[in-house]
Amino acid sequence: MKEIKSVLIISIVAFIAVFLAVYLKGWVDSQTKNSNQIPVENKTDVVEDVKGSIDTKEVEETETEAKTIVKPAPVLTKSKVIATKPKPAPKPAPKPVTACIVTISGSKYNVTSLQRSHSGGNVFVCGTDMTVVYIKQHGKNYSLISKYKV
To answer: Could you say which of 21, 69, 102, 142 would form a disulfide bridge with 130 (CB–CB 3.0 to 4.6 Å)?
Structure first.
């Protein structure tokens, strides 16, 4: 009784395998007639399925057909581009305030605050003798600059 069941099961499995091979061969042929360019990955999948189930002459023919098919051109797909805002450049550290000392007629003057408010603009060259420049503009009237004397 066990032998009969085993033979019956093997027969059913073999029948299903042959049926699938014939069915898939017919399907592949009908697809080839409808379209001369079947996507290679689809035909390869069919060949792999048939190879895994049964090895027949039909499988070899199908495999040969799959190799001769022209591959379709690659398809470009849209992709999202995520734009990010550029990071702002780091702000430079503020320059330390250093005293601007000038010499006029042998006396030293701290003109740091005068650099911003001077009506003629920032004409001071810190650390130098500015006597000639001062006399040309203001004469020998040192009362204008006396409050900046060090």
So the answer is: 102
Q: What's the CA gap between 6 and 4, in Å, rounded?
A: 5
Structurally, the chain folds into a number of domains equal to 2
Instruction: Select from 46, 68, 90 the last residue of a domain.
Output: 68
User: Which range scores top for mean pLDDT: 6-10, 27-31, 46-50, 56-60?
Assistant: 6-10
For the whole model, what pTM was predicted? 0.37
Same domain, 108 and 62: no
Q: In terms of Cα–Cα distance, which of 74, 86, 131 is closest to 108? A: 131
In this predicted model, what pLDDT tens digit does every residue of 91-127 receive, in sequence order?
A: 887 777 688 999 999 999 999 988 888 888 889 999 9
d(CA 61, CA 21): 12
